[in-house]
């Protein structure tokens, strides 16, 4: 893989863009939009709660560059959802029971989409406190510009009793769960990047950030979650310097 193709790969890795608008890819795009509105129903800015493009564009921000309120809380973070947001969530869940959900797709695609939405609505993520959705990120890693969006970031770790974790990054997946160790490693490369990027943008340690893939395409709840590997920043950057595996558009 030449330098130009490798750069294009890593820029697209944080949010792969399907080259062909297949029905599955279209359904995946619609699900991500629904998930954004479901996790934070009162989100007013479609670009996410915190725009970090300006502060991240020139390199790796330090902790002093992270906006904060007078009481020291990060701007853009939120606590438990308010009554209006909860009411909107209930409305969205009720709408799942409506045939077709008011969307103009073929019946098979609409059924698949409603199934994914129900699985998220019934998952533990619906009970977690969100911090950001669709958060834009831009940074330079190993001399390569990486940009994209985090699907969702929740407060606390995957194990909510682990006080050492500040955030959990969740990457919603609507494609097929990887079947081999190699395929899994390629998918987890996304989470490696996400953890480093959020660590740098927030000025916090990499070890304080959990991350996982969550496959709403899986019928069995026990098969939906694949957690990030406990890799160090140096290990992640070394992998970036060695080159990139083949990406998949069906995400």
Explain what the structure shows:
- 37% of the residues lie in helices and 16% in strands.
- Strand 3 (167-173), helix 6 and strand 4 form a beta-alpha-beta unit.
- The model is unreliable at 45-78 and 244-249 (pLDDT under 50).
- The chain has a single domain (3-242), classed as Lambda Exonuclease, Chain A.
- Helix 2 packs parallel to helix 5 (107-121).
- It has 251 residues and is of the alpha+beta class.
- The two termini are 22 Å apart.
Characteristic key phrases:
globular, Lambda Exonuclease, Chain A, 37% helix, disordered C terminus
CATH architecture label name: Alpha-Beta Complex
Number of domains: 1
- Envelope shape: globular
Give the DSSP E fraction (strand runs of 2 or more residues): 15-25%
Q: Summed up, what is this model?
A:
Helices cover 37% and strands 16% of the residues. The protein has helices spanning 3-13, 23-39, 53-56, 83-95, 107-121, 181-202, 233-242, and strands at 130-141, 144-155, 167-173, 209-215, 225-227. It has a 5-stranded mixed beta sheet, with helices on both faces.
């Amino acid at each position: 893989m030449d330098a130009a193709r490798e750069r294009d790969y890593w820029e697209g890795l944080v949010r792969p863009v399907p080259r062909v608008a297949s029905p599955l890819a279209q359904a995946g795009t619609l699900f991500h939009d629904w998930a954004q509105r479901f996790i934070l129903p009162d989100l007013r800015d479609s670009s996410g709660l915190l725009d970090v493009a300006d502060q991240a564009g020139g390199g790796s921000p330090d902790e002093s560059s992270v906006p904060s309120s007078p009481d020291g809380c990060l701007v853009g973070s939120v606590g438990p959802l308010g009554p209006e947001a909860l009411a909107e969530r209930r409305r969205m869940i009720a709408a799942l029971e409506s045939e077709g959900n008011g969307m103009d797709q073929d019946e098979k695609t609409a059924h698949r989409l409603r199934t994914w939405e129900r699985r998220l609505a019934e998952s533990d993520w619906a009970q977690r406190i969100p911090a950001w959705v669709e958060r834009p990120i831009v940074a330079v890693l190993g001399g390569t510009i990486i940009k994209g969006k985090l699907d969702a970031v929740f407060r606390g770790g995957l194990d909510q009793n682990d006080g050492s974790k500040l955030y959990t990054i969740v990457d919603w997946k609507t494609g097929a769960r990887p079947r081999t160790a190699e395929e899994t490693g390629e998918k987890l490369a996304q989470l490696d990047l996400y953890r480093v990027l959020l660590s740098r943008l927030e000025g916090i340690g990499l070890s304080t950030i959990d991350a996982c893939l969550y496959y709403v395409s899986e019928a069995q709840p026990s098969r939906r979650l694949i957690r990030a590997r406990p890799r160090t920043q140096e290990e992640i950057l070394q992998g970036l310097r060695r080159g990139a595996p083949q990406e998949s558009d069906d995400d």
